[in-house]
Amino acid sequence: MLGNNHAPEFFNGVHKKVADPLKRICEETLEDLEGYKNILQQFGVNVIQPDLNPNERFIDNPHKYPRGPLQPRDEQIVIGNKCFTNNKDHPAIVKKLLEYDSENTVLTDKFPLPEFKYNEIMCPLSGDWPTYKDYVSGYKLKDFVAQEIADLNYQTWCISSADSFLIDNRLLVGISDDSVKDTIDVSKEYIKQFTGLNLDVVCTEMDGHTDANFHPVKPGVILSLYDVHNYQKTFPGWDVCYLPDQSWDKVRGFLKIKRKNQGKWWLAGEEDNDEFTHFVETWLQDWVGYVEETVFDVNVLVLDEHHVCVNQMNPTVVNFLKKHNMEAVHVPWRHRYFWDGGLHCITLDLYRESS
What we know:
The chain is built from eleven helices and twelve strands. α8 (252-261) packs antiparallel against α9. The protein is an alpha/beta fold. The model is unreliable at 116-127 (pLDDT under 50).
């Protein structure tokens, strides 16, 4: 599966000063997706994409920008012959997965929740205290508060392809804190139940998505941002190509601007917003060309044992791959940092010819 993006017309009705640059980003994103699709097909890959409603418009829901179906890997993972999805991503992704193979698409949001222990732990004087389930149901709370609590409920599934790598019978999961370890243990039991596989699940500390920090591209071979992981512990003896001062470090200035403008520069009526103008000029005039030429992203896609899709032909990476009998395949992806999704994120392997 290759992700999809809104057409430029999605921003029809938004003030021209705001809409024009956003339409340009959409147009160039669709161009790059088409180029990516052609490259995948040249290597014999069958490609499917989520379908978008061409009549959908941003102004229909301007106060909450709807994330498009661009990054199918972020909330899904394929293990064995099953595709697990938490059904939290754009509905077009799940719809296409069910069309592709409904029998082997597992909706993890349907898994029963375990008993939540918050009330027992935090409220020992529980006589008149409502339970967590009471709160989820809206007990003495305004609707929007009840919904927020419901959204924060205890999960039974928290594994995705963006946070983990499946290597033989070992599933390496990157976590930012220990709070999800219990959920991962529960997820392991569901994996065994649905696939019959008893995987060795290994948790390792990771800041952000695992596939944005490092990538095992072949047995014994890893691409990595500098010093993000203790490979001697999890991959002893593997050859690691370190790329210091790449990816996130090089775009830190842009990300700072993006965070500052989030929730403001999208809205109709912000046409006189100087911060929006600064954001657009910085991204479209400076940062797009900058990242295309100078930033290598370890968020790569391995096509087969000899080919790796990369966003930039970094000489260090090209030579490292050649040493391991692999070839870099250049896939232009101009707006990776605008959408916050690289070449790995915007794809999802559904079926591989492999043992």
